[in-house]
Structure formats: structure tokens, C-alpha cells
Design goal:
alpha+beta, Heat Shock Protein 90, five-stranded mixed sheet, rod-shaped
């Protein structure tokens, strides 16, 4: 089954991105609509202007034809044609109904033009009832030629007028460019404002979710968890917050039950271990007493040496049970930390006197290292680690125990190493558990007790081990 790819884009980044895309797209659409509207208005303006000028020019021609009394276009003088062209600011050409050129304002100025109209134009006027024909120029949008049927005041066809209209868009382009510049400036500022607003909106929207996510990450089963406040929380997030707070209440209840269950389980296991350890010496004690009883009932006499041997065996087994009870009592009680100012080097040196110093190499460059610690507990830690070190060395190997004490700016460091069997990888995770031991005797409480003592003084214990080469335990706790 393929794992789904982790989406690393945050919700706030998405909101910010989409808002900015919306603003940019909106600006582009407004610019496009503006250009379209400008072009449409410009086209309609030139269309209306051409129709208006055509209408005025045709009316003027009708009255000039009536003045000539001839009632024909040929009767119009060149000066009249030029005057009308100047007055209306338009060039034009007059053709008879057969399409032959009669008068031309451009020809009068010496600019030759067409002398005959295309048959398509003549056919249009003959076949359609429309008095106006527009010729579209595909290659030039600024040139709009038009043809109109010239009528007399009595609506009698007199000829055809051709008007070559050139649409001057210079002013319109300048206005459009100026408007687009202003529009771009406004929208540029709008984008900057939208950038800031989008940033704050995305932060505000996701603020509650970030707080929830941060709180959930800190949620632990065994810790005291804090509920999330509902103040200024969006409506959509309130349900999530309430669900989390409800979960915290249930988690607290479950943690109490779990802790109780773990304590009960731990003590049950410890009781089993203690019972097992106590049974071990009880069996030889029972056998010894039964043997003595049978011998005595048969009238056998016992020498002082035999009685002493019997009593020594019982005392040895009793001492074993006593040590088991003491170890269990020490672990169960774990007295409250008692802090006193002491010289760590001196206390460790006292603990070393209990053992055979021939096999112990003690090293310390400082003469005095002061710490706030319980004297008895420090001796207990040192002796337990040294005892473990001696027990970890095989009988066919000369013991080599090294003890060193050093300090840094904040902590005291005690290293105790041996050349024993080492700790296997399978045992490294269980080495500090209360009832774990690799020895044939003992309850496995020593290292667990040391760890508990050090934790009470804000200290720690760790180790490094190599199989058949030895183990080094490192003890750390604060200086004064």
C-alpha cells in the first residue's frame, strides 16, 4: 500500500495564495473589460460620427442641387463641392447611377481617384432597398469607406456618393493609455493592500488551528494537559476545541486508571519476585532442620563442630533473606532527598575502602569538588556500581576497575568502568528496570534504585558497553 505524500503547504499559506490569486485575476479581468469597453465605445463613436456627417452632407447636397435648378449632380460646381468638403471636413466623390464619376473633392485638389464604381456596389443598390452600403476593410480597421444613395428633396435618386472615412484614434489611444496607467497604479496599490490584508486574514483564520495543533503536540498521557480556551475562536473551530477539551477530561481519567493499574501490576510483580527470592534460602533451611531432626530422633550425638556448621548454614540463609528484605525496603521507601554540602572526592574515597583497592584505579585531578547531596546515598550509589563491576568480571580474569571523578561548569561526573562480560544489546533497554537482573542471585533493584536516587537530585545515569570488553557507567548530578 502506497503511503500518501505529506502535504507541507500550510493552511495559512493556501488561504494567502488563493486570496492573492483572486486579486490578481480580478485585476486582469478589470483591465480586459476596460480595454474591451474602450474599443467598443471608440467603434460606436466613429460609427455615429460617420452616420451623422453622412446625413448632414447629403442634406447639404440636396439643397445645393435644388438651388442649381437643374436638379442633377452634374450641376454642382467645383467650388460648391470644395466648400461642402471643407465645411463638413470630409472628402467625397459623386457618381451617377451608372457608377461613372461626376464630381470629386480629391480630384479638384489634383489627387486622382476611381472613375467607376465596382459592379458589386451598383448591384447592391439596384437589388436592395437600403440607401447605404458599408465596405469593410479587413486590413485597416481605421478606414471605413461608405456609399450612400443621393436623393433629391422629392426622394428621386440622383446618384451615389462615396465617402472615404479615416478614423483618427490618436486621442482615444492617449486617453486609453492614460486611463490604463491610472488603473494600473490603483490596482498595484490594491494588490499591496490585499497582500497585507490576506496575510493578516490567513494568520487570523489559522491562529486558532495553530494553537490547537501546538497544544495537541504537547498532549501526553501521563502529564497534566491544559485545555484550550474558546475566547475569540471562530465558530467553525469551536466544535473542534470542545471535542479536544472533552478528550482531555477522558484522558485524565484514563491516565489515573492506567497509573493505578501500572502500580498494582508493578507491586504484584515485585511481590512475586520477593516471594521467589525468599523461597530460595527457605528450602535448604528446611532440609537442614529436617536432617537434624531425623538424626536427633535416632539418638545420634552431635559434636560442637557439627552444631556450629548447622547453625552457620542457617545464619547464612537468614542473612540472605535479610538482605533481600533490606533491598526491597530501600527500593520501596526511597527516602526524601536530603541535601548537604559535601566533598564528592572524599565520599567516593570512603566508599572505595570497602573493596580491595589492588584492583581499583582511582583518578581525580581536583582536590575538592563540592556538591549538595546525601552522604549515605552517594556511598550507596558508589558501592552498588563497584559491586556490580566486580560481579561482572569472570573468575578467570584479573579484575580491572577504574574510577574517575571530574567536573564541568555545572555538573559532577563520576565514571566507573570494568573489564567484564559487558551488557548485551538485548538487555540494554531493560537494565534499569526494577526486577531485571542477569545474575543468578539478587533482585535486580540496585541500578533501578541508583536511577531513582539520582533523579531525585536532578541527576542521571547512563552506560556504554562492549561485549567481553567491559562496561562504563557515567553518573551526573549538579554541583553547588
Amino acid at each position: 500500500m502506497k503511503k500518501s505524500k505529506e502535504n507541507k503547504v500550510s493552511l495559512s499559506s493556501r488561504i494567502f495564495f488563493y486570496m492573492m490569486v483572486f486579486v490578481v485575476v480580478e485585476s486582469i479581468m478589470i483591465a480586459g473589460v476596460t480595454l474591451y469597453q474602450f474599443n467598443k465605445q471608440n467603434s460606436e463613436y466613429h460609427k455615429d460620427r460617420l452616420e451623422r456627417k453622412e446625413k448632414n452632407l447629403l442634406v447639404d447636397i440636396q439643397y445645393e442641387v435644388k438651388k442649381s435648378l437643374a436638379l442633377t449632380l452634374e450641376s454642382l460646381s467645383d467650388s460648391t463641392v470644395m466648400e461642402m468638403a471643407d465645411v463638413h471636413n470630409m472628402e467625397f466623390e459623386l457618381y451617377n447611377l451608372d457608377g461613372v464619376l461626376i464630381k470629386s473633392s480629391t480630384a479638384i485638389k489634383g489627387i486622382p481617384g476611381k472613375t467607376e464604381l465596382d459592379k458589386n456596389i451598383l448591384n447592391f443598390f439596384s437589388e436592395n432597398s437600403s440607401n447605404r452600403y458599408m465596405q469593410e476593410e479587413k486590413n485597416n480597421s481605421y478606414f471605413k469607406p461608405s456609399y450612400n444613395l443621393v436623393l433629391s428633396l422629392e426622394n428621386k435618386p440622383l446618384g451615389i456618393i462615396y465617402i472615404p472615412y479615416f478614423a483618427d484614434d490618436t486621442v482615444s489611444k492617449e486617453e486609453r493609455s492614460s486611463f490604463l496607467i491610472r488603473l494600473g497604479f490603483v490596482h498595484g496599490n490594491m494588490i499591496l493592500v490585499a497582500f497585507v490584508i490576506a496575510f493578516f486574514i490567513s494568520s487570523f483564520v489559522t491562529k486558532s488551528l495553530d494553537a490547537i495543533g501546538k497544544t495537541i503536540k504537547q498532549t501526553r498521557l501521563t502529564d497534566k494537559n491544559i485545555k484550550i480556551e474558546n475566547h475569540n475562536t471562530p465558530k467553525e473551530v469551536v466544535a473542534l476545541v470542545e471535542s479536544y477539551n472533552t478528550m482531555i477530561d477522558k484522558l485524565k481519567s484514563s491516565a489515573v486508571k492506567l497509573a493505578k493499574s501500572e502500580r498494582e501490576t508493578a507491586w504484584r510483580e515485585m511481590a512475586k519476585q520477593v516471594a521467589h527470592e525468599i523461597k530460595n534460602p527457605l528450602t535448604p533451611m528446611r532440609l537442614s532442620i529436617q536432617t537434624f531432626e531425623r538424626s536427633y530422633s535416632k539418638g545420634q550425638e552431635f559434636s560442637k563442630e557439627k552444631i556450629k556448621e548447622f547453625s552457620d548454614s542457617l545464619i547464612q540463609q537468614i542473612d540472605t533473606m535479610s538482605s533481600i528484605a533490606t533491598a526491597f525496603s530501600d527500593f520501596a521507601e526511597m527516602p526524601t532527598p536530603k541535601k548537604e554540602k559535601l566533598n564528592v572526592i572524599q565520599i567516593v574515597d570512603v566508599a572505595l575502602d570497602i573493596f580491595n583497592r589492588d584492583f581499583i584505579e582511582f583518578k581525580c585531578e581536583d582536590k575538592e569538588i563540592e556538591a549538595s547531596f546525601d552522604r549515605t546515598q552517594l556511598i550507596r550509589i558508589t558501592t552498588n556500581l563497584l559491586k556490580n563491576a566486580f560481579q561482572a568480571i569472570p573468575e578467570n580474569k584479573i579484575p580491572e576497575i577504574k574510577v574517575s571523578i571530574s567536573q564541568n561548569a555545572k555538573q559532577v561526573l563520576i565514571l566507573i568502568s570494568d573489564n567484564g562480560y559487558g551488557i548485551s544489546k538485548s538487555d540494554t533497554e531493560k537494565i534499569f528496570e526494577p526486577n531485571f537482573t542477569t545474575k543468578s542471585s539478587g533482585m535486580g533493584l540496585g541500578l533501578s534504585m541508583i536511577k531513582s536516587i539520582l533523579e531525585a537530585y536532578n541527576g542521571s545515569i547512563s552506560f556504554k558497553s562492549k561485549k567481553n570488553k567491559g562496561t562504563t557507567f557515567e553518573v551526573k548530578f549538579p554541583k553547588i
